[in-house]
Amino acid sequence: KVDYDVCSNYGNWLYSAGIGNDPRDNRKFNMIKQGLDYDGNGDYVRLWVPELQGVKGADVHSPWALSGAALSQVGVTLGDTYPQPVVTAPEWSRHINQRPQGPSPHPRGRRGPAPAPVQHRGIDFYFSRKKDV
Fold it and tell me: What is the pTM assigned to this prediction?
């Protein structure tokens, strides 16, 4: 199953590019951190990038950081069977070779406490007779 929502996806891409709401200077999408948070074992990457089928675990999120011997063992040659990275932002370095801490209890894959539920007034507030809510 492919998860696709046109508005959400385009909005997130624009936000990551720094031209959406709340644009901040020097925004860089950290693909390695996102991969570790949402696809810790790399199954999604291996599904859509068959060239990396042999790369085990989270290493699939940064194959360029593997040794030549490790790449050779799984049949990957950077610049030939898999492209060299176009950009490697300095901010990514702390996530390269990091291992996920096991399955995340957070429904979207993030670690840490779940946010408190948001209290909405809802439509009943506007149409109920009682206005002291």
Answer: 0.60
